[in-house]
Amino acid sequence: MALKDIKAKIGATNRTHKVTRAMEAVSAAKMRRTVGSALAGRAYARAALGILARLAASSDLSRHPLLRTTTAEVRLLQDGRSPTSAGKIALLVITSDKGLAGALNSGVIKAASEALAAYPQSAVTVYAYGKKGNDFFARRGYAVPFYAENKKDEVERSVMEELAADLAARFVAGDVDQVLVAYSNFKSTFEQRPTVRTLLPLSVEHVRELVEDIVPEKGAQSHVGGPTSHMGNGPAYTIEPADADVLSSLLPRLVAVSLYHMLLEAKASEHSARMVAMKSASDKSKEVAHALTRLANKLRQAAITREVSEIVGGREALAA
Fold first, then answer.
1. What is the pLDDT of residues 245-257, one digit of tens each?
2. pLDDT tens-digit readout, 44-73
3. Omega of the bond prior to 227 within 30 degrees of 0, cis?
4. Quick one: pLDDT band at residue 76, thresholds 50, 70, 90?
5. CB-count exposure of residue 130 (10 Å: 0-12, 13-18, 19+)
6. Burial class (CB in 10 A: 0-12, 13-18, 19+), 140
């Protein structure tokens, strides 16, 4: 490789390094903001969990359509079989529209595919929030009646509320027997865990797991908030003005809150994964530029040595 070509490659590598460093800084800022939003809403999620736990002992609550176990699941449980192979399922897969985030999207898609392995394709309906998940399942022939772009950095609550209402309506109507959500759970800056959770039917255990996972396992914010293990089933409550009216308003909101926090986790994971990927790219470009600079110095030194040798040789030839 000529010295001129090496210098051009060093310049291109340094420009790439500047771009990846800038993207790393932007992703870090977005990640901190998204994690802050999740932590700020944790108090609301804990309050919603407390309400559900206190109402869990109510017989009226246990009969509510959003918490009722399907007949197919009950039959399989009585037979000693897993309920995951019963009935129809709706899967919401949350991925990103943008790349440069390492194995984030592929991990979520793999976890979603494993969750669907027990179901025939005809019994599965996929709701895709993000281009990567939509493309994957649409190419494989799954029914995808809902697709929304996931390009914006801000999480839109209105979209989550509409989606939660649609999923709840389909569950209550009996169109689906279970609603799952596949997303990337933010554990720490360097760890994002693909996770599949049950959204419907609602249960205290599923909501408690979600609330506990809002706080990262590591980092400066890992000790924010208190434990939720003490929130058990409370005494039965008398609900006024009417059980159906209160629960029909409260429980869909709890579904929307759960879905909203899952999307916040996915957003934090996306920005974190992109930040780590860009940091790796920045470090690698720096190494490449350093190696090319050393190579250029060696070639230049060799050229100088050759020229000096030619000059010395020419002078000795003239002196002879």
1. 667 777 788 888 8
2. 777 777 777 666 555 556 667 777 654 444
3. no
4. very low
5. buried
6. exposed
Q: Would you kindly state where each structural domain of the chain is located, as residue ranges? A: 21-276
3-class SS letters over the chain: CCHHHHHHHHHHHHHHHHHHHHHHHHHHHHHHHHHHHHHHCHHHHHHHHHHHHHHCCCHHHHCCCCCCCCHHHHHHHHCCCCHHHCCCEEEEEECCCCCCCCCHHHHHHHHHHHHCCCCCHHHEEEEEECHHHHHHHHHCCCEEEEEECCCCCCCCHHHHHHHHHHHHHHHHHCCCCEEEEEEEEEEECCEEEEEEEEEECCCHHHHHHHHHHCCCCCCCCCCCCCCCCCCCCCCCCCCCCCHHHHHHHHHHHHHHHHHHHHHHHHHHHHHHHHHHHHHHHHHHHHHHHHHHHHHHHHHHHHHHHHHHHHHHHHHHHHHC
The span from the CA of 210 to the CA of 157, in Å, is: 17
Q: Which pair of tokens denotes residue 62? A: 């246990």
**Any residues with CB less than 8 A from the CB of 243 and at least 6 apart, and which?**
58, 60
Q: Please give the span between the terminal C-alpha atoms of the chain, in angstroms, as a whole number.
A: 37
Give domain 21-276's CATH architecture: 3-Layer(aba) Sandwich (3.40)
Specify whether the backbone of 203 is left (phi greater than 0), alpha (psi in -120 to 50) or beta.
beta
Whose structure tokens read 């002078």? Answer: 315
Global pTM reads 0.77
The label of the residue with tokens 């255990």 reads: 205
Distances (CA, A) of 241 to 47, 128, 251: 21, 38, 16
- Location of structure tokens 């914010």: 221
Q: What are φ and ψ of residue 100, in 5° steps?
A: 60, 35
Tokens linked to 317: 């030839």
